[in-house]
Amino acid sequence: MKWVKLNRPKIKVEGEKLKLQMRGMSAQEEHTHFLQGLLTNDVRSLRPYTFNYNLMLKQNGAPVDELFVYKIDDHYILDTSRPSEEVLNDLNKRKLSLRVYLKPLSYEHVFIWGEGSEDFVKDAFGVIPQDFRIEKVGDELFLASNPLRVGEKGYEIFGKKEELMRYLPPGEPSEEEFEDKRIRNCVPKLGKELREGFSPLEAGLAQKAISFTKGCYVGQEAIARVHFKGRTPRALALLKLSGAKEGEELLDDGKKVGLITSVSPISEYALGYVLRERAKEGKTLKTKSGEATVERLCS
To answer: pTM of this prediction?
Structure first.
């Protein structure tokens, strides 16, 4: 079993409930309407104690943030990758006159994965949540099963520090192994794979973070244009490096065909974007410092 402490700020989102449904509102709760029109996935469909994965985009479709949205009773908890002050400033500007209330939460967050993790969770809490479901296991302590965090089964424990500390797993945290697992399982990261100049669809997030039926949200038109053109010309790929470094261009016969975006701290594996026509499995591409062999496409 492996575990890691995540540096993921949490923000509570509450709002007023309309007495009458108003034209132009996507939900009767103002905070649900706000998130539904801001994020890429279908927040309105969430039931209490479930969650989904979302992106926040610019109008051009470039990622601003990636986050999980947890529905807790009549409010939401946002699990974000950006500093809470930055997110709060951004959201407060966007909510305009909506009666939406934002509050930063002083929560700690632990993620557990690998062999033995399920036994640990069952022994500690007496329950195993289903994927994308949340169990309240303390006054302000939550347990969730999240198969997207590193691309395989894993469990999240988050909440007040004094409660969470009673359930810390044995051994030392595994930050480097967490990053290696993320890369090997093709999980894109903000600032690495999720960045200006690359579409989230190229990162393989169409089925994980984007709803094509929910209606309008910021950046929807840009995403729809790429989606309805069919398969993207570039794709995220798992690479095996020999001397190559993060940030280097991938070259085929001297022509730029891609970019290395993440490199594992403990193995030779990496992620990068490659033109599909040049991304055959087993193909070796050159870089300034070495070589990168395509192991597989991520989507």
So the answer is: 0.93
